[in-house]
Amino acid sequence: MIRSLSSSGATLAISWTAGGQSDFPAIWLRDNCRCAECRHPGNGQRLYEITDLPADIAIAGAVLEDGRVRITWSPGGHVSHFAAAWLADHDLAPAARRARKRHITHWTKSIDGAMPVGDWRQILADPRAELTFLDAYHAHGFGLIRNSPTAPGTVLEIGNRLGFVRVTNYGALFDVRSVANPTNLAYTPIGLGVHSDNPYRDPTPGIQLLHCLESTAPGGDTLLVDGFHAAEILRREDGGAFDLLTRIPVNFRFQSADADLMARQTLISVDEDGEIVGVHFNNRSLDWLDAPAEIVGSWFAAYRKLAEILHRPEGELIFRLEPGDCVVMQNDRALHGRTAFDPTKGSRHLQGAYVDKDGLESRARVLRRQLGEKREVAA
Ligand code: OGA
Ligand code: ZN
Ligand code: ZN
User: Is there a contact between 360 and 173 (Cβ–Cβ < 8 Å)?
Assistant: First the structure.
């Protein structure tokens, strides 16, 4: 794998047999030493503080030894070993860093016939089926589980199997059906435009589950829109609007007899490479824009533009949840809504719950490890 290496005090340069060269900075390598003095052999956790490393750490010598790189450090004479495969997996070159990012698939209405679907009994019985479902969910930002029990509370079983249910002021789960004196428009038969749930929470729930118990009332179809795809369209059509929505936060709020929840966040979040990593959109709970008066007009124009894109029919996936179906949605990407329904002509009862995203990411990595697949390095 390693053809040759050379080092200055500040950098280790590796030439690969497959071609190309990678540079590894000295302080970065020193901080990645996995020896028993640096990391606890049982759990791999770091045993020192950054301040324990010399600020002027330098590579005193680097040699190839049994396919590994052996480095001697100065000052101090500490010795570290790095496997060639580990260095290749942690290459800092732009192309390698891009390849380590999660690869996602944007979708529109046309995903109709190819939705990411899993069967609950198979997911429970077969780790391969569970991982396949989780991979499809991670790529699309949502997944549909079919054939789960229709007993009340099943949403908690699903949430706690895939991750960990987060309890809120609505409880561990919430019933979505038309009731007298609704505390939330979700508990009426009114149609709901696509939205993220609870952007007034800090942190906003990462995943929402909606599990269908009954669905005989006419209407009440589920709407899903890929918020990342919509935000990408906004960036293409109006870069200034996109930029404003990534920089200027807005207040969201929910008030009831026993809660007053408030959070401030941007409608679109991007990472350090400018890639979209979050979209939070909710017309019902958007509160007020606390921003300099001179940018208010442009912010509202940008907000309107994003809403117009989210409402375009070509982006909108529409399907009907049947009893035993549970849709698992990244709440900062797969925006959901429903059409109006008629509660006088049948019943409609869903149960919802919130789960954090990291639990499903962890579950996928653990399954990958158990199935003997190569572990994901990042993302
Ligand atoms: C909700 C919601 C959609 C539905 O409860 O958050 O958006 O299909 N419900 O009832
Ligand atoms: Zn060490
Ligand atoms: Zn909702």
Answer: no
Q: Where are the domains of the chain?
A: 2-99, 109-370
Q: How far is CA 348 from CA 23, 188, 263, in A?
A: 59, 11, 31
End-to-end, the C-alpha distance of the chain in Å comes to 25
* Ligand 1 pocket test, candidate residues 213, 322, 338, most atoms within 8 A of CB: 338
pTM of the model as a whole: 0.95
Beta strands in 154-221 (DSSP E): 165-166, 174-176, 192-195, 207-215
The token duo for 5 is 């290496």
**Each residue of 358-379: pLDDT tens digit?**
999 999 999 999 999 875 554 4
CATH 3.60.130.10 fits 109-370, yes or no: yes
SS3 at position 321 = coil
Which residues, judged by CB distance below 6 Å to any ligand atom, belong to the binding site of ligand 1?
Answer: 176, 186, 192, 197, 222, 336, 338, 350, 352
What's the token pair of residue 278? Answer: 């979050």
pLDDT digits (tens, 9 = 90+) for 38-82: 999 999 999 999 999 999 999 999 999 998 999 999 999 999 999
Measured N-to-C along each axis, helices 227-237 and 293-310 cross at an angle, to the nearest 10 degrees, of: 120
CATH number for the domain running over 2-99: 3.30.2020.30
